[in-house]
Amino acid sequence: MKRHNFKELHIWQLGMDIVDDVYVETKHFPKEEQFGLKLQLRKSAVSTPSNIAEGCGRGTNAQLVQFLNIAQGSAFELETQIYISIRQQFGTVEKWEAIVEKVKHLQRMLDAFVDKFS
Question: Which of 2, 53, 73, 88 is the most buried (most CB within 10 A)?
Fold first, then answer.
């Protein structure tokens, strides 16, 4: 298997953009959410491009697909946490909705990338 340069992959780049967006939106969360929803949002956002990168460093297509699937799970977790943030009125609905659109786009891209190796 040819290893992929994760930094050149659009899915990794979009994942990194989403991380930036989530960090900006969670910056002013209530103090009591510091170790709750704020932390969970940031962890799932960070996990997505991290698992894409880790999969690209593995030696087989099966391992790559495994880590892409983990990244996909983190993206769905992030989407759910954003909906919770909207329901709890943390942050700006319009900004969260824009991030959700990016997350959904990333999910579709991950599906397509996995399909290339399955």
Answer: 53
